[in-house]
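Final report, closing paragraph on structural work. Over the funding period we assembled a curated collection of sequence-structure pairs, and we close with a single example.
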Amino acid sequence: MRRHPEHGVLQRVVREHLETFLAEARARGGGAGLPRFVEKELRAYLGCGVMACGFARFRCDGWTREILVAFSCKGRGFCPSCCGRRMGERAAHLVDGVLGGLLVRQWVLTLPFRLRYRLAYDHRLCRAVLGVFVRALLGFTQRRARALGMRGRAGAVTAIQRCGSALNVNPHFHTVIAEGVFAEQPDGSQRFVPLREPPSDVGVARLLARVRGRILRLLRRNDIDLEGPGGLRPARQRRGARRGERTARTPLPLHLASARRAGCAGADAGQRLDHARRRTRSETDAGRLRAAALWPSSKRS
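Its predicted structure, as stored:
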């Protein structure tokens, strides 16, 4: 059965308020407005799954029935249908073709509010922070293996989640790491050797301290003082950049409002927004999960 996204709530809201939202974004951004690729994706979403915007006709020689399939926008950051299909395909590939039956453990790294909006538009810095986190995790796993008399290399896969449960700007990393090491055999093949003991509380605390220290050093090299009274400073021209090369842009007011989960347009601009949702069983049992604070919670973050 064909879906009818043009009758859905989300597409109706975007269709009715898109032009007003874009105009207000330009006004609040000093004429800059949203990045062109964001506006392009929003406009393409309005035609996703709509027959009037194009379709393909499929016909089987053995059947008299024909099927019409509307074109999709193939968006990567907004359309629920296209994003859901892409996530399902990627998950199936990881489970069936990459992870297989390996024993794995998930690690999640969240970041202070003042750093979230910076990573949302500075892709180079986002990759650098992720690299620090993953290298620390791989080293941690290999040290645990060596303590048990096993040597080998660890492996991990990361999914970058760019928003929170309220669709607010919240770049964070979900890393699935093999709970073990790949040891090389005499014939050159690799054998997975699992770690049967979970990490200790002391080990997790030391790992988080190491990750925190490395991220702070990375930020200072990029002229970012996260803990100072001045907060985040604009990015300077990085060393080795070519003359005329564009550096990271100053974050838009929309980025800042979304990172703080506040209204960014209309009568609620600047006011913190709350969202109501039913707590899941996993959330009510959150006490069973092991967590450690990368940055102590405070008003400064």
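DSSP finds eight helices and seven strands in the chain. The CA atoms of residues 145 and 170 lie 33 Å apart. We thank the funder for supporting this effort.
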